[in-house]
Amino acid sequence: xxxxxxxxxxxxxxxxxxxxxxxxxxxxxxxxxxxxxxxxxxxxxxxxxxxxxxxxxxxxxxxxxxxxxxxxxxxxxxxxxxxxxxxxxxxxxxxxxxxxxxxxxxxxxxxxxxxxxxxxxxxxxxxxxxxxxxxxxxxxxxxxxxxxxxxxxxxxxxxxxxxxxxxxxxxxxxxxxxxxxxxxxxxxxxxxxxxxxxxxxxxxxxxxxxxxxxxxxxxxxxxxxxxxxxxxxxxxxxxxxxxxxxxxxxxxxxxxxxxxxx
Amino acid sequence: xxxxxxxxxxxxxxxxxxxxxxxxxxxxxxxxxxxxxxxxxxxxxxxxxxxxxxxxxxxxxxxxxxxxxxxxxxxxxxxxxxxxxxxxxxxxxxxxxxxxxxxxxxxxxxxxxxxxxxxxxxxxxxxxxxxxxxxxxxxxxxxxxxxxxxxxxxxxxxxxxxx
Lengths: 262, 163
Hints:
The complex is a heterodimer. Chain A is an all-alpha fold. Chain A has twelve helices and two strands. Chain A is 67% helix and 2% strand. The two termini of chain A are 26 Å apart. Chain B is of the alpha+beta class. Chain B is built from one helix and ten strands; from the N terminus they run αββββββββββ. The radius of gyration of chain B is 29 Å and the shape is elongated. At the A-B interface, α9 of A face loops of B.
């Protein structure tokens, strides 16, 4: 049975249609496997080769990839929540109530969105501390640290703008307090608050602005900076591995490189 | 840019090459376009008309506020306070981070639920983190004998309205 399936795929990979889509060809040679990464739109941001100890759990604890994972969960559940949510007063509150009590799986999706959001903030901070204490921010990776800080700010802004959307008491007063904190910026504080809320009070304008920021502007900014962040990992010499890492077992593995199979 | 060319004489030092001139014109127009875009964006993002309630509130007849009473209008975020000295109106918005305060009858104080600021019934800070006292709003009687409060006009404290 297994041989049959394998045979089917090896036949499929030789068809004209398949070869028109995947030009790297088949086979297990290093060149073919490198080409499979390099010639794909989705993989070409990744290095064609990585050291095995770079993708070891011990090296990074996978905190960056896990943060990306929560972001992807948030994108999917967020788009689904948008199908039932109107960013208007007082409809927003009733829509969230509907998601909770009326829509099938609405409660599950909303809770998934909420918990993933909390987890993403937590993981982003964990990733930051891991990078900091490993010294992985040092040259040549110092600019990627800056990109990481931008991503942390975008994450926090996403968290903050999403907080208003349920339009309940907690949301209203949290955003009242938060927008007043932004008013503490010297000279331009009141203007910043006015532009953020689209008025002097947390109101329909503020809800709509936060909705657009939360669902369009900030996610697009996040995707852009995530792209740069990953690209720079490759350009700055791959994932950071400490030079003083114990060399017993890993030194052997180091002599052979593996192609990455994401 | 200009140092690509070697000046022939001291007078030509002030002259710039054609290339440098066009570079400056190009950068200048880009700068003007960028400033225009920023102005446009700023003006578009600042609403010209706000559908927010009027700052002037009709608080009704003075006799609906008994002596030694503190009455909160939560919709308008103001207190109408009637003490022995007379009437006055306080903002109900905490001066710390903008939460709505509440009158605690049993304690005789105005308290903020968000971060625990406390005020007297005259708006004086008893307990932080509020940095400033609650502002006093302009309060007057209209021709029909009703109290009006202007929430956009802050007056000096301890100016009571005697009726």
